[in-house]
Design brief:
single chain, 200 residues
Length: 200
């Protein structure tokens, strides 16, 4: 399945599309490209572009763990749809941001589910992937905290800064990690289920 030329070309086209929406949405302005919306979308676009290109010319796919690392980030961005719907936070959904928040995450998830090949070595590999997958989103959370220490502001301001202290910050970090690990567990099982159905 993953060796078909059509799949490789599809990855390249979709990757370019996601990259275009990210860069055009941010007007090629680096002053706001530290936002998770841009980082996650551009990472997904670049990953698809590279995976498709490497597959086309080198006849091999990039490691699937790379998809599993960026999925928690792009899925977190997708959750802003619910923040907007329920009025919890007024995220930008105009222009390309509609694609970055609502469309690209779904497209990338579908690409992962239907156009990649997941090969697990053993049970330990299965468990290891679940706990490794949140690393990228946790690295961004750490960046956001360091930025807060320097500037006094969080990137999205979803948490009241007066509630951040030596107790709440570690608890928030642990909670986020566990939540992302649980999400990764669900996505991993979903991927295995879809892959099994396709191969039958």
């Amino acid at each position: 399945m993953e060796n078909k030329v059509s799949i490789k070309i599809t990855k390249i086209i979709v990757g370019l599309f996601i990259l275009v929406t990210a860069f055009v949405g941010y007007n090629f302005d680096p002053s706001h490209m530290y936002e998770l919306t841009f980082i996650s979308n551009s990472s997904c676009g670049l990953l698809l572009l590279l995976d498709g290109t490497v597959g086309l010319f080198k006849k091999k796919a990039l490691p699937t763990i790379l998809y599993q690392l960026v999925l928690p980030c792009i899925n977190t961005v997708f959750f802003t749809v619910f923040f907007k719907l329920f009025g919890w936070h007024d995220f930008n959904f105009s222009g390309m941001f509609f694609f970055m928040h609502a469309i690209n995450p779904i497209i990338f998830l579908l690409m992962y589910l239907f156009m990649t090949k997941l090969e697990l070595k053993n049970r330990a590999d299965y468990i290891r992937r679940i706990f490794i997958a949140p690393i990228m989103i946790m690295a961004y959370a750490l960046f956001d905290f360091v930025r807060f220490v320097i500037t006094g502001e969080l990137v999205y301001g979803l948490i009241a800064t007066d509630k951040l202290n030596y107790i709440s910050v570690p608890l928030i970090g642990i909670g986020l990690y566990l939540l992302m690990a649980f999400m990764s567990y669900g996505l991993l099982d979903l991927k295995l289920y879809v892959q099994k159905k396709i191969e039958q």
